[in-house]
Amino acid sequence: MKRLKYFIITFGCQQNKADSERLAPFLEKQGYFLASSIDKADCLVINTCMVRQHAEDKIYGLQKVVKLLKEKNPNFKLILTGCMVGAMVKDLTKKYYRKIKNRLPLVDQFLSIEEVGFDIPARRETKEHAWVVISNGCNNFCSYCVVPYTRGREISRPWTDIMAEIDCLVRAKIKNVTLLGQNVNSYGADFIKNNLEKRKYTLPDGKQVIPVMVKMSMGRKRIPTLFPVLLEEIAKKHFEKISFLSANPWDFSDELIDVIVANPNIDRYIHLPIQSGDNSVLKKMNRFYTVEEYKKLVTKIRSKIPNAKIGTDIIVGFPGETEKQFENTVQLAREIDWSVAYISMYSPRPFTASAKNLNDGISRKEKSRRLEILDDIINKLPRIKNP
Ligand code: SF4
Question: Which one of 146, 149, 152, 199 has the fewest CB atoms closer than 10 angstroms to its CB?
Fold first, then answer.
């Protein structure tokens, strides 16, 4: 009997990469084997991203290849998973479902990532490093971002499941781990929410922790998070390096900074998205903090962690971003001296507030010009690093 083979194509962020690492054993459980190349596969899984229009377009572009593969092998199966399927499932109007069915008629199966789950042992790409998902989804609804509509509301993975995975990695002698979540440093806020009146949280080992109560932080009313406690627990496991992605500025508490300071095996690279260096753009983005608050946080991190390297994300050409507002971001880039910036051009995303309410009036040419200016300042020119 012919052994059916699968091939996975992954688009998008590290969370999607981690999801694909669990998709592989999920398919193997169903009797599939890994194909060495796409043309040897009987089943292609596309793990989709829709954070920008460009990412979505690449997926539509794969239809030609799939058509040829289906002509060659009549039993060839196309499975779609990831963010596009997440959005389809969550869209109660079914409009997005109809759009995808229409644009991608060759799809045989839509697989929601929740069906794969978070606890299936991953097939890691390397023996050195492991992604560990600690939370999924987001509650913040930045006005440009589709994530709350694709991955849904933020849900933290149970502490015991995370620590069980961490213990497996220790036994497998994995050296480096990266903890993942859309708001990785909000981990556990959903657990604490139900225990707020007690002001303490009991960990599965019986230890009671009293997370630092943050009432207002960078313009947001925050409840405490368990991330510093979790990070410290994982740091004790003697990995060579523990990294985490992506941290939001409003949950970057003093407690978290102290944990980083106390544990040299926690990565000194800190990714801290700003998105814009202009307060009125930030407000329209629903980002709440001000540039001044962000700068204060960076100064605090650098003073307490002198070898910290801080990277960021920036969106250029957000609806209505004037030349002056863009210049404010340029000015901030010169001041802050980020180690790296992931800069993207704004593109309206379905379901989001900015797509519904704001006019994407800045031309692609102008967005591209702004991107290049920032890229030259932050990512290309030799800069004096923090000591
Ligand atoms: S914090 Fe904002 S940008 Fe990040 S995933 Fe949530 S909504 Fe998107």
Answer: 199
Residue 248 alpha carbon, nearest atom of ligand 1: 1
Q: Is the pLDDT of residue 38 over 60?
A: yes
3-class DSSP state of 156: strand
Q: Which amino acid is at 135?
A: S
Per-residue model confidence (pLDDT) at position 126: 82
What pLDDT is recorded for position 341?
A: 97
- State the burial class of residue 366 (Cβ atoms within 10 Å of its Cβ: 0-12, 13-18, 19+): middle
Model pLDDT, residue 127: 84
Helix (H, G, I), strand (E, B) or coil at 154: coil
Ligand 1 pocket: which of 49, 145, 151 to mutate (most atoms within 8 A of CB)? 145
> Which residue has its alpha carbon closest to ligand 1 atom 8?
145
Ligand 1 geometric centre to CA of 70 (Å): 37
How many C-beta atoms lie closer than 10 Å to residue 385's C-beta? Answer: 9
Residue 123 has pLDDT above 90, yes or no: no
268-387 fold: Transcription Regulator spoIIAA (3.30.750)
Residues with CB under 6 A from ligand 1: 138, 140-142, 145, 147-148, 182-183, 248
Residue 333 has what pLDDT?
Answer: 97
Q: What is the pTM of this model?
A: 0.91
For residues 241 and 206, the answer to whether their CB atoms sit within 8 Å is no
CB atoms within 10 A of CB 92: 7
Positions of CATH 3.30.750.200 in the chain: 268-387
Q: Which CATH superfamily is domain 5-115 in?
A: Methylthiotransferase, N-terminal domain (3.40.50.12160)
Rg (CA), the chain: 22
What confidence category does residue 387 fall into, taking pLDDT thresholds of 50, 70 and 90? very low
Average pLDDT, the chain: 91
Is 350's pLDDT higher than 60?
yes
Give, for ligand 1, the residue of 51, 141, 142 to mutate: max count of ligand atoms closer than 8 Å to Cβ.
142
Domain 124-267 -> CATH class: alpha beta
